Amino acid sequence: MENWNNSKHKIMDLEGVSLLEPELTRVNQHIERLCQSQNPSMQKILQWVLQARGKQLRPILTLLFAKLAGKQVDATEIAAVIEICHTASLLHDDVIDEAELRRGQLSVQKKFGREMAIYAGDFMIFSAISRTGLVNKPWYRELFGNLEILCDGEVEQFDNRFNTEISEEQYLQNIVGKTCSVFRIACLAGAYEGKCNKAERQAAEHFAESLGLAFQLRDDLMDFIATDTDAAKTVHQDFSCGYYTLPAIHTFTYSGCGDLLRKIATDLQSGMRYREEVTAEISKLIEDADGYGYTMRLIRGYCEEAICALNVFRNSEAKHCLKQIAESVREGAEHLMDNCLC
Fold first, then answer.
1. pLDDT digits (tens, 9 = 90+) for 132-142
2. What whole-number distance in Å separates Cα of residue 146 and Cα of residue 20?
3. Contact 1, 32 (CB under 8 A)
4. β-strand 101-102 against 105-106: which pairing, if any?
5. Which of 59, 107, 148, 218 has its CA 20 to 30 A from that of 88?
6. Using one digit for the tens of pLDDT, what is the confidence trace for 279-312?
7. Residues 6+ apart with CB under 8 A from 57
């Protein structure tokens, strides 16, 4: 297996985050220790998975929240467990979505097959549970409680597939389940390890939920707005598969545009039309209904809520860096909007 410690960390390019590099090295050491298999085929898949890391946002959140109360603690192992469980869920997602790429390389289901992707995801979760030394932590059960919420959120999303009547409230609640749950445990785990008090832990939850909502809504924009850097994400992929995100949901409620967009959704579902034929039409309807602008306004609001949630903490480098993370989500969404308006 490629040693993560000998490769360049793909951490977020934000001021202050680079100071976490020694701790992220330990996180990656824990991941390698927890994700080892005696089976050569499984080990080959694990090597493939672990050589392609994302920006490690969730471990970064855990490590930063562990610093907010000014305590010297080691939150690297729980950060590793959370990252393993998150990565395992992505392996399963790629099977469901039939995704060909993940983090700049072939997905496990594409390279090794759907069955092996499911087995590998299961192995990663079970190995993390059985090998970690954190099982006696008082908050450890909350990790898996939030993973249950993640699964419920994914099922709720699937239940609403091709539902053009889904409300904004329903959709945002789905996000709280499928996206915010892992953000919540990442932030809470760090806050617990860092000896934060009850009010500070509540602030950590508020930050996590607001950031998670903004993060997912930014991804919603990415499904509709093409850029040169959206990691080969296919524009309108979610919409054509019947997963209607906020720009479309808002447009469904808009007089005139809503009926036309529903007709396109029905035609795509029945196979009467194909995504390539209706791309420009979908984008025009959403733009006319202010679906992009409405989503952007919510992103700004959630990012501001996340930043305000940090007010209970004293000023520190960790707090400054968490603010930067929220601001980077907003700035990324604004960049997408700039491309939309070009």
1. 988 888 777 77
2. 25
3. yes
4. antiparallel
5. 218
6. 999 999 999 999 999 999 999 999 999 999 999 9
7. 12, 325
